[in-house]
Amino acid sequence: MKKISNFFSTFIGLAPLFLILVLWELFSNKPSPHFPAPSYWLQSIQQIFLNGILINSIWNTIWTFLIGLLIAASSGFILGILIGINSSIKEWTAFILEAFRSLPPPVIIPIAVLLMGYSPSMKIAVISIATLWPILLNVIAGVSQISLGVIDASKSLKLSRKDMLLKIVFPSVLPFYILGIRVAIPLAIVITLLIEMLTGMIGLGGIMIAGQRNYNSAQVFGVLVIVGLLGLGINLFSQLIERQLLKNWPPKKSL
Amino acid sequence: MENLYTLRDVSLELPIGKNYRKILQNINLDISAGKIYTIVGASGCGKTSLLRVLGGLTLASSGAISYLSNPVKAPPDGVAFVFQDYASVLLPWRNIAKNVSLGIESKLSKVECGKRVEDAIALVKLSGRELDYPWQLSGGMQQRVQLARALATKPTVLLMDEPFAALDAMTKTGLQDELLKLRDQTGVSIVFITHDIEEAIYLGDEVSLMQGPPGQIVERIQIDLPQNKNQVYTRSLPQFLEYRKYIYDAIEGCK
Amino acid sequence: MKSSVLKGLGGVFIFLLAWESFIFFNIVHFEYLPPPTKICKAWISLVQQQKYWLEIGHTLFASLLGWMIASIVGILLGTTLAISKRFRQFSLTTIEVLRPLPGVAFAPVGLLLFGFSLNMELTVICLPTLWPILMNSMVGILNLSKKLEEVASVLKLTPTESIRKIYFPAAASSVLVGLRISLSLAVVMAVVAEMIGNPEGLGYAIVREQQAMNPNDMFAYIFTVGCVGVCINYVLSQLAIFILPGQFLRKDISQSI
Fold this sequence. Notes:
The complex is a heterotrimer of chains A (255), B (255) and C (257).
Chain A: H1 2-13, H2 15-27, H3 38-50, H4 53-85, H5 87-102, H6 108-116, H7 120-144, H8 148-156, H9 161-199, H10 204-213, H11 217-245
Chain B: E1 3-16, E2 19-32, E3 36-41, H1 47-54, E4 62-67, E5 70-71, E6 79-82, H2 96-100, H3 110-123, H4 139-151, E7 157-161, H5 169-186, E8 189-194, H6 197-203, E9 206-211, E10 216-222, H7 231-236, H8 238-254
Parallel strand pairs in B: 3-8, 3-9, 6-7, 7-8
Antiparallel strand pairs in B: 1-2, 1-4, 4-5, 9-10
Chain C: H1 3-24, H2 36-47, H3 50-83, H4 85-98, H5 106-114, H6 118-142, H7 146-154, H8 159-196, H9 201-211, H10 215-243, H11 245-248
Helix pairs in contact in C: 2-10, 3-4, 3-6, 3-8, 3-9, 5-6, 6-8, 8-9, 8-10, 9-10
């Protein structure tokens, strides 16, 4: 019973969106260059789907963003732990890390283009570097909040250094690590799309810019919807994974 | 009876800012097997520091402290520590059974470890709660989990830092009696810090009065009360009241 | 000076020194990676040119404009959502669906509709900037204690008065945090929009220098963008302390959702 009412309330919540789409469809000047009706979006999406471009672009966007994220997630974790457990390294690197964090990720792109040219490795390098910071900084914060009491207790239980790392530090850091990754994911998507738009490389951003250059507005809006769905899907998926990984932790205060 | 701990002229200095502050001064203490030693004194007099020195968590600056004739330079084998702030020393991502096994799981076989955990949990009367998580338990129960974790290591000496201070009166008295039973069953020596004078007299075979800073043991009082202790009866015995008056006066006089 | 501050500065110094010497000794050799000294010189020369300040001005102007639009809409919507349960019922899912949509995806839309212009920038800036303000306003008001509602009804305040005199000030700290985050975001989105479309401002300057293979100037502009971000954040936090000293002088104000 509860599941049905939950589903129903979610459904109702989408009302404004449906309303806008329906009104748009009814009132637009069908093949308008600026505001084509949603049915036209569908048509143009069908087109690029059928000639294979859509699948190829989605695949390109996803795999570059995933690999970039993976590199950032692994190096962020290792570096974060190394910096976090060593208080003097933490002090020496504090300002540098803060400076890099304040740099808006998009500006890394022109640097990478100059240094590495237009290539998938440039794309992955930029995504990795841009998404490294939230992960790295969150892991460092996670290490700093490990209470001294736990460390004392572990010492008096005579835990080996390896055990302290694996049994105490790693699990303590996990919620922060996951938070960092959840912040990094939408950032990774944005950067991936941005690179594709700036360089015209293959991907969803690439099709959007191509559509814009050809004044194919239906294609632009259509791909916008796909990007939205992709973002939504990834968001829901990461929430699911987080709930699964953190199921043993005390419930967080949420929204 | 052999001394477990021998402390001669132990002093402790810690750097505070640019200076050194004397925390402990010329402590002399003997701990032998099977007895309960309570240390009582006002807040800030150095009781916790003394316990940490015994536990090998803080190293003495001068003097000789030895456990079973070996100088104490690190947490000694056979000595377990129970902290005051139970919430921050239990691992939130492990259930009760796994929390209790933290100190022994790398050192014993799975079978032996499982048995010890089961026994320890039974000793603190938490059988049946093995799969629960710390955040699901009350304060008193969490403190018992910490106690079980210490007991699972089959210690010869149990060091306890105001373990019941944060608990309500009824839980506290219940745990005091459980501690006495524990000592009778296992023969463990206990060094117990408290600022509650009545608790010190009720539990202790020997009460040390501490004054400071810098912390000094001004007097050691042997407690001679009938062994079948009862919260209401024992605490109204004339000898109990005499000890109480004596210690209150001594502490008043110190101020 | 505190030793940790000294060490932090020391770290920066070592980093710059390493950068400079790696290039000097040819340990690292990228054709377009200049050493810090060259970037510094380029920056000093830029600072003396009018176009540099005009570019900063444009980016700031676009960000502020987009941010103001987003703020008005965000606060209005956020407040309405907080107050009316019915409205929330019908809108929350839509918000959850629209929120993950990356602002950058609107750049081609903006280009289509408005060509190379300020309006294109605004298309990119407004939507992403809207969310922190909207969410923070809504959550800030929702989290108000029941007691304040009772105060409003006992004093028999009209809905407009309750909003103006009780709800808004109480929610203000959450709203201010949202505004602060949004402005920083607005600056970033403005730069993004300028990189893709509108040929004005800092974003365009960076891409222009990159395409002209002028790494010294490009890095100088990048450094500028970073500084602008830091300055804005600093100014806003000082402003927040000025407006609500009671709540913002505490250092533990949590950030957005």
